[in-house]
Structure formats: C-alpha cells, structure tokens
Amino acid sequence: MRKIIALICFSLLLTIRPVQATQFVDGMDDVPLPEGMTQITQDDFSFGNEETRLLEAYLTEIRGAKKTKMRFSKIGEFYQESLPQLGWIYQGNRGNDLLFYRDGETLELVRESVSPLIVRITVKTKP
Predict the structure, then answer these.
(1) Quick one: how far is CA 65 from the chain centroid?
(2) Are 44 and 38 in contact (CB under 8 A)?
(3) 29-57: string of b/e by CB count within 10 Å (b at 16+)?
(4) What residues are paired with 39 via a beta bridge?
(5) How many CB atoms lie within 10 A of CB 97?
(6) What's the pLDDT at 54?
(7) Residue 122: exposed, middle, or buried by beta-carbon count in 10 A (0-12, 13-18, 19+)?
(8) At a CB cut-off of 8 Å and minimum separation 6, what does 30 contact?
(9) Is the dihedral angle over the CA atoms 81, 87, 91, 95 positive or is it negative?
C-alpha cells in the first residue's frame, strides 16, 4: 500500500509545472511582459515629475526556433486578463487600441506593426 501511495505522489510531482516568475516591462513595474514577447529597450521613453508621468515602451515578438506567430488579439487577451489584477480597469477599444484606467492614469496598447508584431504601451497621467 505504501508503495502505491509513494508511486501516486511521485506521479503527481512529475505533472506539476514549475511556477515561472512574471516578468514586467522595464520602467513599468506594474505592466507584465507577455510570454513570447520581448522589449525593444532602445525605443523606451520616460518622462515624469511629481505631478505627471509619461512612459512609452515597445514590445516585439521573439523570433526563434518556435516560429510561433504572435497576434495582437492574443496580446490584448493577455492584458485584459492580467492588468485588472494589478488595479487597471479595462475601458474598451478605440479602433484596434485597448485602453485601461487606474488612479488618474491611462494605459494604451497600440499595434504598431503586424509582421513582426510590434506593440506600443503608453502610460500617462490623465489631464
């Protein structure tokens, strides 16, 4: 009986996937980075003072051995699921752009390019 229980426990351990640490967009510690995307850090823009801030980051799909094509709709689904957990409220679409709001700030996701997929994320204080 002990052998069966030990075998079951061992089998369960093999099926558990390790928890991956969530990565965040550099300079935006409250905006997660979707799996399969990487940040184009040389294009980042940041401005802020005590009253306002403006942050802009560009993400692009990781090209590699997988050859999986990222779609903006999947990125949108990822952010519609993850950002509310960080306090962002989904405001809807403006064309293909997705808009979120939190504590006097807006977050906008814009598809800049389809192939390769490039997404611009802008966080700014709402006037």
Answers:
(1) 22
(2) no
(3) eebbbbebbebeeeebeeeeeeeeeebbb
(4) 59
(5) 15
(6) 94
(7) middle
(8) 24, 86, 87, 88
(9) negative
Separation between Cα atoms, residue 91 and residue 103, nearest integer Å: 13
Is residue 37 within 8 Å of residue 119, measured between CB atoms? yes
Q: What is the pLDDT of residues 37-84, one digit of tens each?
A: 999 988 888 888 878 889 999 999 987 745 567 899 999 999 999 999
- Is residue 93 predicted with pLDDT exceeding 80? yes
Q: Please give the span between the terminal C-alpha atoms of the chain, in angstroms, as a whole number.
A: 68
pTM of the complete model = 0.77
| pLDDT grade for 88, boundaries at 50, 70 and 90 | very high
- C-alpha to C-alpha distance for 29 and 32, rounded to whole angstroms: 8
Longest dimension (CA), the chain: 68
* The predicted structure's pLDDT at residue 118: 95
Whole-angstrom distance, CA of residue 105 vs CA of residue 61: 26
